[in-house]
Design brief:
The structure holds 2 protein chains of 2 kinds. By secondary structure, chain A is mainly beta. Chain A is 0% helix and 47% strand. Chain A contains no helices and 11 strands. Chain A has strands spanning 3-7, 10-12, 18-25, 34-39, 45-51, 58-60, 68-73, 78-83, 92-98, 112-113, 117-121. In chain A, strands 2, 4, 5, 6, 9, 10 and 11 form a 7-stranded mixed β-sheet that branches. In chain A, 41% of the residues are buried. The mean pLDDT of chain A is 96. By secondary structure, chain B is mainly beta. Classes of the chains: A mainly beta, B mainly beta.
């Protein structure tokens, strides 16, 4: 069955960096776009970024643009989120999600979710 | 940027029907997706493309979308349906996903 497992979360000081990973299994990873979605404590869901099936297309929420970078390694079935210049307001559970298609224009849905990894930005 | 608005909470007695709304400018022209999130768990897709159900989701869950309002309908509500429900669309103008603020469904 489709499975997504996030890792790399933890406690980090403001201004520092962190890299999240998502291991995919149970489907042809190289054929699907992937998203990161986050949820601050007690708050709603916030979309973070999307990457196309081949990595050629990437889009970011305005709140993270210029600080976060989404990438993928299809040979290892891995999705990444490099987070730089972290702010207090980046504190959240970060979810990796699978889109239903490979191209971004048809990938605007979160078909399957991982369990998430918690990032806490604290001094 | 595009905005989706949901009521923060809704209470329904067991066996009754819950209708959770998601309002946005001409949202009827977009495809709406709905997620169920139980406490301490990741969200689960329960309705996609306005009114389609993923395999394994009970037929009690359905959806509609017209004009400025999309609605998730949960028929014959059970205690196990108590959860947060989030609506979501894709904004093609910005290539961003947009979520509503979420609705907490309480089963009385």
């Amino acid at each position: 069955q489709v499975q997504l497992v996030e890792s790399g979360g933890g406690v980090v000081q403001p201004g520092r960096s962190l890299r999240l990973s998502c291991a995919a299994s149970g489907f042809t990873f190289s054929g699907y776009a992937m998203h990161w979605v986050r949820q601050a404590p007690g708050k709603g869901l916030e979309w973070v970024a999307v990457i196309s099936y081949d990595g050629s297309g990437k889009y970011y929420a305005d709140s993270v643009k210029g600080r976060f970078t989404i990438s993928r390694d299809s040979s290892k079935k891995m999705l990444f989120l490099q987070m730089n210049s972290l702010k207090f307001e980046d504190t959240a559970v970060y979810y990796c999600t699978k889109a239903p298609r490979g191209v971004i224009a048809a990938a605007g849905m979160n078909e399957v979710w991982g369990k998430g990894t918690l990032v806490s930005v604290s001094s | 940027s595009y905005v989706l608005t949901q009521p923060p909470s809704l209470s329904v007695a067991p066996g009754n029907t819950a209708r959770i709304t998601c309002r946005g400018d001409n949202v009827g022209s977009r495809r709406v997706h709905w997620y169920q999130q139980k406490p301490g768990q990741a969200p689960v897709l329960v309705i996609y493309y306005d009114d389609d159900r993923p395999s394994g989701i009970p037929e009690r869950f359905s959806g509609s979308n017209s004009g400025n309002t999309a609605t998730l309908i949960v028929s014959r509500v059970e205690a196990g349906d108590e959860a947060d429900y989030h609506c979501q669309v894709w904004d093609g103008a910005s290539d961003h996903q947009v979520f509503g603020g979420g609705t907490k469904l309480t089963v009385l």
